[in-house]
């Protein structure tokens, strides 16, 4: 089902501060950043310098508004690991396979994720307490 670990997401209160921390402390660089209005987030994908292999990235996720899922997460837990994203080649097929196993998907249909990927999430209560994201990258990605 899964072809790679696409990214690991960290909830942060301030995106620019978190980018600077990862850069100055670990030497990671920003590969991509955007605002996703529907998800209510500002986010940045980080990688090791110059890495173009499509290796697992770190996604820093900050809330755009008070009612964002990330704002709620930060209120409840503070900053920290928020999600684990698995890459798949066909998100609808992955959703169907997981539904057939009785897992709850958060969305009826895939929604738009980073860089025009198509995404859905498995409810954390059905995945060992981990919010698992399914990511089908856009056709022109990687
Ligand atoms: C909540 N829970 C979590 C969790 N969030 N467990 C593990 N990891 C998380 N991130 C647990 C929580 O502790 C509660 O357990 C229970 O689930 C219900 O949580 P809640 O605080 O009442 O929150 P809800 O139910 O209002 O919302 C939780 C869900 C929500 C997962 C449904 O966060 C959601 O819709 N997430 C998907 C969208 C998202 O995360 N977007 C931001 C990233 P107890 O206390 O009852 O035991 S956007 C993104 O990743 C993009 C654009 C991308 O990658 O491309």
Structural features:
142 residues, alpha+beta, 2,3-Dihydroxybiphenyl 1,2-Dioxygenase, domain 1, eight-stranded mixed β-sheet, 3 helices, 8 strands, 35% strand, binds ligand V0V
Give your account of this protein's structure.
The chain is an alpha+beta fold and 142 residues long. The protein has a single domain, classed as Roll (2,3-Dihydroxybiphenyl 1,2-Dioxygenase, domain 1), CATH 3.10.180.10. The chain is 22% helix and 35% strand. The chain has helices spanning 15-26, 69-77, 91-100, and strands at residues 4-11, 29-36, 41-47, 57-63, 80-87, 111-112, 118-122, 132-136. An eight-stranded mixed beta sheet has the order 2-3-4-1-5-8-7-6. It is globular, with a radius of gyration of 15 Å. It starts with a strand and ends in a 6-residue tail after the last strand. The mean pLDDT is 97. Bound molecules: ligand V0V. Residues 9, 36, 39, 41, 59, 61, 69-70, 72-73, 76, 82-83, 85, 106, 113-114, 117, 119, 121, 124-125, 129-131, 133 line the site of ligand V0V. Ligand V0V is lined by residues 9, 36, 39, 41, 59, 61, 69-70, 72-73, 76, 82-83, 85, 106, 113-114, 117, 119, 121, 124-125, 129-131, 133.
């Amino acid at each position: 089902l899964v072809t790679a670990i696409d990214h690991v997401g960290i909830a942060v209160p301030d995106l620019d501060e978190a980018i600077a921390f990862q850069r100055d402390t670990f030497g990671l660089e920003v590969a991509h950043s955007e605002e996703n209005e529907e998800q209510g987030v500002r986010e940045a994908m980080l990688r090791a310098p110059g890495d173009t292999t499509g290796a697992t990235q770190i996604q820093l996720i900050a809330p755009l508004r008070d009612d964002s899922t990330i704002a709620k997460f930060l209120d409840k837990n503070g900053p920290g690991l928020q999600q684990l994203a698995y890459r798949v080649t066909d998100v609808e097929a992955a959703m169907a396979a997981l539904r057939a196993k009785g897992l709850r998907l958060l969305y009826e249909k895939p929604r738009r994720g980073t860089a025009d990927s198509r995404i859905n999430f498995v409810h954390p209560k059905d995945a060992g307490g981990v919010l698992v994201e399914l990511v089908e990258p856009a056709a022109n990605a990687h």
